Structures
1.
Amino acid sequence: MKPFLILLLALWCCSPLFAQKEIPLYDGPVPNARKVADPERMVERGPDNRAFFDTAIPSLTIFQPQHANGKAVVICPGGGYVKTAFDKEGTRVARALLTDSITAFVLKYRIPQDLTNVDRSLAPLQDAQQAIRFVRKHAVEYGVEADKIGIMGFSAGGHLAASAATHFDKMADSNELDTTSVRPDFVVLVYPVISFMDEITHQGSRQHLIGEQPDQAAILEWSNEKQVNAQSPPAFLVHAADDRSVPVQNSIAYYLACLEHDVPVEMHLYPSGGHGFGLYNETTADNWLNRLRNWLKNI
């Protein structure tokens, strides 16, 4: 990154137009957790380009605009359920949303692994549900309207966001007594892993969440296109047709499921761009974030 861009980024991060802080996701003990030393490690691949591996203690990083417009988005970075691309698909996205006065919450969710989780398959969804619960319970504090809280995810983070949008009727933490709704009011899915069906899944994400040899029941449970129903929230999807990591059929399957159940849905498919383009697909002059901004005006 060029020096002047680094300076510009630093000035932006220190801007009085928004406040940023990181907080623990849970006030007390993390549910479904084993008592082991925190194995998290951070890899920094350049300025504003951190990735976190083996996260066991989840957190929310809150980006609060000076004049909140009432909408909030919980952001789930991708990383194949082995890491979170925290800046590329998290904090950079949050800062972009701030330009529209949207309050953003970047979720550093737990990486599913047997070392730190009793049931690794439930840990990320527990965190996503807790993040939505937290935002809804603190809506007044952050200038958010309680019925305008969405969730957004990239790649495997898209699988997590889609899981939150289709599994909200049952608490991932069976011991949770708080009845605050964990249903997101909208969902944004960017080159998402949606399905765990053999034909179109991203094998790495499936393997890390539910194991190398999952049974058919688990595959169906976590194939989110199979879980869409009439109560699922409105959806916005972005994907590139030449994605070789997560086939575009994942987004198409979710889109078709929404149509089947009369769930409002908008999808933008690009002929090229591959996987992991983040905020900017450099193969097109079209800006998917502007399309999202237009869509959010009707939320």
2.
Amino acid sequence: MHRPERFRLHAPRSFLAWLEHAVATGEANLDEVSVAEVWALAGLAVLARKNGGDELRLSGGGDRAAMRFAHAVGFDEVVAGQGGLSGEAGQTVGLRRVMAIDVVEGIAREIARMLLPEEEEDETLRSLIYVLVELMRNAVQHSGDPLGCVVAAQRMDAGFRGYERSAVQVVVADAGMGVLEALGATYPDLSDAEAALVKALQPHVSGSFGPGRTGSAFNAGMGLFFISEMAKLTTGRLLVASRGAALLLRGGAGYEQRRLSFLRQRSFPGTLVTFEFPLDEVKDHAALIETISAKAQQRTPERNTSAWVRFEPPPDGTFSYLVRTIAEDVEQAALVSRDQLQKRLFAREAVALDFRHMDVCTQSFLHALLFEAVRISWAVQVPIYVENAAPSVRTGIALVDAYARGG
């Protein structure tokens, strides 16, 4: 008798193998599935979107638990081209389409608040927002999928399906070009999709600038590096499946407990990234970001340490910009950098950035805002003042300062 399929993150091969067969035949039957976690449903939905070319046709009567769960989390709405459902507070955030950068931060905060009610510790909330923003923005900006991405999240309480500790699981999936093609132009020596995934987990790796550099105006190439390091440090799990290859990273308390394994002959027709970590792991978000930043600096060429970014109040009359007005909008950050910061620095005028009310800033956003400005500040020896920066934000700024000068 055929064993019912169970699509769970601790054993993702089952889903990827089933999906390969479904794509090959053009039909996906969820009646074959007894259990499907939300990450698998997001991956299936992004391929079945009606205005996406009908790559997959869905079939089945809907009697199995997996199909009932799919209906409950807005699978049908996403496939039909709608935004999706909101889900159940404290348990599940339904599937949702994301097609524009300017909605990413708001959606990330909404998802985090739904999964983690107000009584939950803020530290886990901050880390969850950070991961969601990085993954969604990366998919919308770099996947090449004209329909954007699909995002969802699920809370796994202790005792549920064998979970010993309560955990939170987030997924972002797209049907775009995949990691190998995205990196291929700047890293032509990449031999295959597996090599591309390994490269993508390293710091300062991007399809928008070449080897030996530490960033372009819009991109630091740090997103997946930070998220993979979070998985390692929080005993979490990270699944990255992308056109021709898939890897599963398991974190652990010590180096010997961490494992990265390739799922041989398994991939995804696009890119699917799932991140899961225990809720009791993040005690201090700022300390976590600081630890990862230190690892990134260790793998960045040594720079002149004469910094012109100053974490202190600016002199009276200094131009000051309230960063919250463009929070996590990378394109707007680059424009503000060019039109407001760089222009004044070239004229040898000091500038100030006010980070009040910003407890989370991703490295991508800070890079877009500061990378070119820091280089100019260093060259003309005119300071950039930073006010009201939370500890984790300050750490991220210091990292940009460290690699921008000479990168």
